[in-house]
Structure formats: C-alpha cells, structure tokens
Write a structure and sequence with these properties.
Radius of gyration: 18 Å
Bound molecules: NADP nicotinamide-adenine-dinucleotide phosphate
Shape: globular
Low-confidence stretches: none
Number of helices: 8
Strand content: 5-15%
CATH superfamily: NAD(P)-binding Rossmann-like Domain
Mean pLDDT: 97
CATH architecture: 3-Layer(aba) Sandwich
Largest sheet: 7 strands, parallel
CATH class: Alpha Beta
Oligomer: single chain
Number of domains: 1
Order of helices and strands: EHEHEHEHEHEHHHE
Distance between the termini: 55 Å
Length: 259
C-alpha cells in the first residue's frame, strides 16, 4: 500500500485537469492521471512535471463514457497504489456544434450526457465503494470526491442545452453522493467554474474578451486553470471538512445577482 495519499483526476491531459494534477502533486499526492489516450503530448509532458513535485505519475487511458471499461481502470489504479484518497471527476466536453435547443440532435445529446454525466456518476459510484472499504484499512484516511460542474449548471445557454442539462444533472449527482457518503465519512463537493481560459473556450476567445471587458465577469478577467487547481487543493487538503455537499463557484463573481 502506498504511504502517500493518491489522487485520481479525469481529463488530466490539459486545461483545468492538468492544473488540478500539478496542484495536488505539489500538495503531496501521488497521481493517477486519466485521459482518453496516454500517448497525447499533454500526457507526455505532464509526467515529468508531476515527478518534479516529488510525486509518482501513473497515466491511464479511459474514455469516461465507457462505463464497462471503468472497473478495470479502478482495479489497475488500486494494483499500482493500493489506495485512492481523492477523485476529481473533471473530464467533460462541449457539444461539437452549438445549435439552438430546437435543433439539438439526439446524437449530440447522448454524446454530451454520456461523457459529462453518466460516465462521471458511475465512476464515482465505483470509487466510492472502494473508498468505503479502504476506510476500514487505512488509519487517518480522509477520502474526498469532487465533481467539476460549470456555471452552466444553473445558467441557460439556448445554443448548448445538452451541456447545461448535463452539468445541472452532475450538480445533483454531487448533492446525492454527498448525502449518501456523509454516512461513510467521505466528503463530496461540487466545484463550479466560470469562464476559464482552456482549449474548451479557445474558439470563443473574442466573444469572451469582449464580454469580460464589458463587465460580464465582475472581477473583469478570465479565470485561469490555476484558480481551479488552488480551490481543489484546498478542499482535498481538508480546509472544508465540515462542508460536504458544498458548491464552490470559482467564477470571478458570476454568482452575484445584479440589478
Ligand atoms: N473552460 C471552461 O470555461 C469551463 C467552465 C466550466 C466548467 N468547465 C468544465 O471543466 C472540465 C474541464 O474543462 P477544460 O476547460 O479543462 O476542458 P479541455 O481543456 O477541453 O480538457 C478536457 C479534458 O477532458 C478530457 N476528456 C474529454 N473527453 C473525454 C472522455 N470521453 N473521456 C476521458 N477524458 C475526456 C480531455 O482529455 P483528452 O482529449 O486528452 O482525452 C481533456 O483532458 C470540464 O468538465 C468542463 O465542462 C470548463
């Protein structure tokens, strides 16, 4: 069994997931980093960065929407490290095309829901079961599960309904898991990013630059992946141990209702 705590991060190859990996490696976690492929440039440069922090790096290939593949992945991580202390359910996608809700296709709906909602829910279920068992085996074991949702969980965009619906569902998944797992001593939280500068928003840079300049984001800047990495490190470290089911919105003030 690994002496150090272990963090599993999905969508680790770039963007928010990558920053979470670095923040948790610096925090003293060994890392299991999940992306669809372990051979991408992102995964190849991530390994040495994690090791520079004195942490171990275990790259794992998994399409999170493949719920039948998840069991083997959990088993492989446990074989490598013997424990999982933190799960960051971060992998997610936008629709391939933005279409008005009246034109939304079933194909796009199913793709987004399988990756953003069904996959993370059943991955959390499998890891939660292992955490319940691990709690009996490890003294001073403080398991944490984090769901990466979005401000779109509670804000409508009529041209990407499937994304909003998936994140809204994931937000409730976080609440239900928090409720059930409070009985087991597992902390569950939702991290809800605002507009963050990553590949996901790169195509919309001009649109968001303009909106941010006009004050759409009260703190008047893009969110950075590091903003999310720091929040995740704080929750994982135990700074919020009496706050299960909490929603941490990291959005530069988009949560402020203005008149
Ligand atoms: N950027 C924002 O403004 C923003 C705002 C709110 C919420 N979020 C949420 O934050 C999370 C990360 O977003 P990001 O901006 O960092 O996105 P990103 O830069 O596009 O990165 C997405 C990550 O998810 C992985 N991924 C995609 N499909 C996957 C699948 N089927 N199975 C496993 N991994 C998969 C990608 O890995 P590979 O492609 O290498 O496999 C990549 O590591 C997402 O859940 C997103 O919805 C983002």
């Amino acid at each position: 069994m690994n002496d150090k705590p272990v963090a599993v991060i999905t969508g680790a190859s770039r963007g928010i997931g990558r920053s979470v990996v670095i923040a948790l490696a610096a925090e003293g976690y060994d890392i299991a980093a999940i992306a669809r492929s372990v051979d991408s440039e992102g995964m190849e440069i991530l390994g040495p960065e994690v090791e520079k922090c004195g942490a171990q790096f275990f790259p794992v290939g998994l399409d999170i929407s493949c719920t039948t593949c998840q069991k083997e992945v959990v088993a492989n991580i446990l074989e490598r490290y013997g424990r999982i202390d933190v799960l960051i359910n971060n992998a997610g996608v936008a629709p391939l095309q933005r279409n008005d809700v009246l034109e939304m296709t079933e194909e796009s709906y199913e793709r987004v829901m399988n990756i953003n909602l069904k996959g993370p829910v059943f991955f959390a279920q499998k890891i939660a079961r292992e955490m319940i068992w691990l709690k009996q085996q490890i003294t001073d074991y403080k398991p944490v599960i984090i769901f990466m949702t979005s401000v779109s969980a509670v804000r409508s965009s009529t041209n990407r309904a499937e994304y909003c619906i998936s994140k809204s569902g994931l937000s409730m998944a976080s609440t239900v898991f928090a409720d059930r797992l409070s009985l087991e001593g597992i902390l569950v939280c939702e991290v809800r990013p605002g507009v963050i500068r990553t590949d996901m928003t790169a195509k919309l840079k001009d649109k968001y630059d303009k909106l941010i300049n006009e004050g759409f984001v009260p703190q008047k800047r893009w969110g950075l992946p590091e903003d999310i990495g720091k929040a995740v490190a704080s929750i994982s470290r135990g700074d919020w141990n009496f706050s299960t089911g909490m929603v941490f919105e990291i959005s530069g003030g988009l949560n402020i209702h203005k008149l």
